[in-house]
Design a protein that fits this description.
The chain is mainly alpha-helical. The chain is built from eight helices and no strands. Helix 5 runs antiparallel to helix 6. InterPro entries: 4CMD/NDH-1_regulator (IPR052512), AhpD-like (IPR029032), CMD-like (IPR003779). GO terms for molecular function: peroxiredoxin activity.
């Protein structure tokens, strides 16, 4: 395996390193919460923080095939299904709102996940979303949960 510092300083075709692309994407998608998450690793595993930025955001999130909004929907579903990822869910619920998902769309994605990974995991994820919404002053949400009269 090559030295990560070499990877971070080797520029790609755009002239920017994966770390530079990752930091830009992290700021765009996650905001200041992303930098806080990376900084929280500095005294225990700065390399893990660099990998999250370089690979996770500089290589994966920076790919053009999915928009950041779509990537957040996928991420919310995956973290919900995994379970035990509440700190990461908090970051990504905020990120989902940052990239244009509405609170109602976040809730709908978490509700949808219950069919595939179970109610306990969907409930835990929903409680995380509720915390984020409360911190942002977005509660109460309008009740859009009732089935439509014409649903068949």
């Amino acid at each position: 395996m090559s030295d990560t510092n070499d990877e971070n300083t080797t520029a790609g075709p755009s002239g920017r390193t994966s770390f530079d692309r990752g930091m830009e994407m992290l700021r765009q998608v996650v905001g200041e919460g992303g930098q806080k998450a990376v900084d929280s690793l500095a005294d225990v595993s700065p390399e893990l923080g660099r990998q999250v930025v370089s690979w996770g955001f500089g290589e994966i999130y920076a790919r053009p095939q999915l928009a950041p909004r779509d990537r957040q929907l996928v991420t919310l579903g995956m973290l919900t299904a995994l379970g035990g990822c509440e700190p990461q869910l908090e970051v990504h619920v905020n990120a989902a709102l940052n990239v244009g998902l509405s609170p109602e769309q976040v809730v709908e994605a978490l509700l949808h996940s219950a069919a595939y990974c179970g109610f306990p995991k969907a409930l835990n994820a929903t409680y995380v979303a509720k915390k984020v919404f409360a911190e942002r002053g977005l509660l109460p949400l309008p009740d859009g949960s009732a089935p439509r009269a014409d649903a068949g």
